[in-house]
Amino acid sequence: MKKIYFRSWFYFQTGYSQYFTFTLALLNMLTTTYYLVIAQNELGDKIFTSFSTYVVVSLIVGVPLLIFIGFVHMRRSQIYKSQQDVLQESWPYNYYLLPGIQKEVMAPLFRELLVLGRMSLSNEGITEQQSERLDDLVQKLKLLSTGGTLEMPKKFDRV
Fold this sequence. Notes:
By secondary structure, the chain is mainly alpha-helical. It is built from six helices and no strands.
């Protein structure tokens, strides 16, 4: 029950910061710049005859410009790379297996492959238990490769 409060708080923060604040800031910027800068200036008043004209022109020019700036930020700037470095260093799952496919299929498969590789190098035979574990892993991989999903655990270890 405690988890639902923290999740609700996170969803509230996301909705507020990503949607409400963004929309409010956009409207505030458009209104402020038009009525305090453009409407008070004779040249600006001749170019933009109404607020709606200003909004349309701002969107036509602003959206592609901001897309370009976002692209430069993501692909050409060291700022985004630095942000991702910090996130990568602080993310706790770099040191744990993620619940789901990684923990249920991939890690056991790698372990079994290492054990079988060692056994084949030392000419040991495979046991019935190892054969069953491999069959189970093969079935899980087959299910995943055909678009299926693994059953969701009731409670994750670290999530």
